[in-house]
């Protein structure tokens, strides 16, 4: 029973990490209808900037602020300089641009920061809580990660469903021509969507960093699992991204604990296939019917 509880808590922690990345992917998809495969590279750059602050004596919170501000600027620049020139072309063009940006950012990080993996300090203690004499594999820092992700999901859900800003961003993404006729400034809305997504990604990078090493390619696996979580939950749903991340994290923790870590990636594939067979739009995605 103790092993099952430990695996569950460890899965919730890793699932929150996947959910944080999934939230950033969902935000860009909802606001611009583009899957940003450069998200891992963007959060890697902002995390390196945060690490620079910490390594020079700055506090964790100052580093987090630097990551958020740099993410806001980076996201806006990427949309204005790279994505907007191809927004009227076939959707595949934007996907290719994001892949190219990922390679560029990884190469740039290698030149500026080197390829040596760096350790990142956690916000809180990493010693697990004790319950009935048993030390859990769930620490105050893990609790911080879970609470931040849940809070981010709640904020995004409110913004998109309950505010005029969210309505304008959604209309700019789904029907830009109609949105322009209704007075919505589509360009700034798209830029804002990318900037907000980059902020979420920057926070995700800082949350992830203590559990992995910061390096130019250190976030690639997290991006893959984060994208899987977003698809499982539904690319249109912030709550779905969180649910997908937590489900994926717990399942993969069980797979690693009971079957072996060598088949974790295969386990993620099985979960993805099962969910898409039952509900192709994702667990929380809006179901669509086929037009005859």
**Annotation field: number of helices:** 11
Shape verdict: globular
Major sheet summary line: 2 strands, antiparallel
Question: What structural class do you assign from the helix and strand content?
Answer: mainly alpha
Uncertain stretches of 5 or more adjacent residues: none
Written as H for each helix and E for each strand, in order along the chain, the element string is HHHHEEHHHHHHH
The proportion of residues forming helix, as a percent range, comes to over 70%
**What order do the strands of the largest sheet run in, or round the barrel if closed?**
1-2
Task: Report mean pLDDT, rounded to a whole number.
Answer: 84
How much of the sequence is in beta strands? under 5%
Radius of gyration: 19 Å
Distance between termini?
Answer: 52 Å
**Total strand segments:** 2
GO biological process, one term: amino acid transport
Membrane topology: Multi-pass membrane protein
Keywords: Amino-acid transport, Cell membrane, Membrane, Transmembrane, Transmembrane helix, Transport
Protein name: Branched-chain amino acid ABC transporter permease
């Amino acid at each position: 029973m103790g092993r099952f509880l430990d695996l569950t808590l460890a899965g919730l922690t890793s699932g929150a990490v996947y959910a944080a990345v999934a939230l950033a992917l969902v935000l860009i998809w909802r606001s611009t209808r583009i899957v940003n495969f450069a998200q891992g590279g963007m959060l890697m750059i902002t995390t390196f900037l945060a690490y620079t602050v910490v390594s020079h004596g700055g506090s964790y919170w100052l580093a987090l602020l630097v990551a958020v501000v740099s993410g806001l600027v980076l996201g806006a620049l990427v949309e204005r300089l790279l994505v907007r020139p191809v927004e009227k072309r076939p959707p595949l063009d934007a996907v290719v641009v994001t892949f190219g940006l990922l390679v560029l950012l990884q190469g740039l990080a290698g030149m500026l920061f080197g390829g040596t993996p760096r350790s990142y300090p956690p916000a809180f203690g990493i010693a697990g809580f004790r319950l009935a004499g048993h030390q859990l594999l769930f620490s105050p820092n893990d609790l911080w990660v879970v609470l931040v992700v849940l809070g981010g999901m709640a904020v995004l859900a409110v913004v998109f469903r309950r505010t005029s800003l969210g309505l304008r961003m959604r209309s700019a993404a789904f029907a830009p021509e109609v949105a322009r006729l209704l007075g919505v400034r589509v360009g700034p809305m798209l830029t804002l969507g990318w900037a907000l997504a980059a902020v979420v990604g920057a926070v995700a990078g800082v949350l992830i960093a203590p559990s992995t090493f910061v390096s130019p390619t250190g976030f690639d696996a997290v991006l893959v699992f984060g994208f899987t979580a977003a698809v499982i939950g539904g690319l249109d749903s912030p709550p779905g991204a969180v649910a997908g991340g937590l489900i994926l994290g717990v399942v993969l923790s069980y797979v690693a604990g009971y079957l072996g870590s060598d088949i974790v990636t295969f386990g993620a594939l099985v979960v993805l296939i099962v969910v898409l067979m039952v509900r192709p739009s994702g667990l929380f995605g809006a179901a669509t019917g086929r037009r005859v």
